[in-house]
Amino acid sequence: MFQIFLRFYEELNDFLPEKWKKKEFSHFVAGGRSVKAVIESLGVPHTEVDLILVNHESVDFSYGVQPDDHISVYPVFEAFDIQPITRLRPKPLRETRFILDVHLGKLAIYLRFSGFDTLYQSDYNDKTLAQISAQDHRILLTRDRELLKRRMITHGYYVRATHPKRQLREVFARFHLSLSVPLVPRCTRCNGIPEPVSKAEIFDRLPPLTQQHFDEFFHCEVCDVLYWKGSHYQRMQVFLQAASIPEIDHDSF
């Protein structure tokens, strides 16, 4: 066993006990451990880390810690270029797509309403979430920090907020989504893409008041749901504006 010194920056402190937050602290480790193993043993998932400096030099996750190392750990720099130092994840995803765990069903609805390609099923287990995230290059959003420690996951984020609307604000801020709001809306039920449909084609399926007051409709061919710009749509627009998220209007629901 030998002593090392660590400091975690910005939101990485969310994973640490109060005594270690926002300051350098000493820690004893066994020889032969990688810096990745040390970081995750302290509760910080590797997907949250984008830069590690050891004695002021950048290293990757495989670096073997040495006695008296001073280790600085920084969160992801999604919007910044930190080359030529060693970035620890692949480049940010060019197309922002998500997969969410079982705890984030409401957030999935909000992200789909905002137009983002978002996979969610209540029966996804941890193995399935990790595999889909890796294979489809999707950002895994979760409330389970242990899930983010799986080796195959390269793009993931631990959602701090517990209220769904606060979660949406958090994710928009974290991934700078206001800069890349999609032009194509998503079905809030299944993540499909609703297409315009004539009122005559679906007239018999509409509630009486909807038949009277609305003329523009959209149909999801995947799950057969109909959409129109009713009161739910208007409430969501009010929320998005209050959250400083750009108004979503794709000539859709």
TrEMBL record:
<feature type="domain" description="Mut7-C RNAse">
    <location>
        <begin position="96"/>
        <end position="238"/>
    </location>
</feature>
<dbReference type="Pfam" id="PF01927">
    <property type="entry name" value="Mut7-C"/>
</dbReference>
<feature type="domain" description="Ubiquitin Mut7-C">
    <location>
        <begin position="2"/>
        <end position="81"/>
    </location>
</feature>
<dbReference type="InterPro" id="IPR027798">
    <property type="entry name" value="Ub_Mut7C"/>
</dbReference>
<dbReference type="InterPro" id="IPR016155">
    <property type="entry name" value="Mopterin_synth/thiamin_S_b"/>
</dbReference>
<dbReference type="Pfam" id="PF14451">
    <property type="entry name" value="Ub-Mut7C"/>
</dbReference>
<dbReference type="InterPro" id="IPR002782">
    <property type="entry name" value="Mut7-C_RNAse_dom"/>
</dbReference>
<protein>
    <recommendedName>
        <fullName>Twitching motility protein PilT</fullName>
    </recommendedName>
</protein>
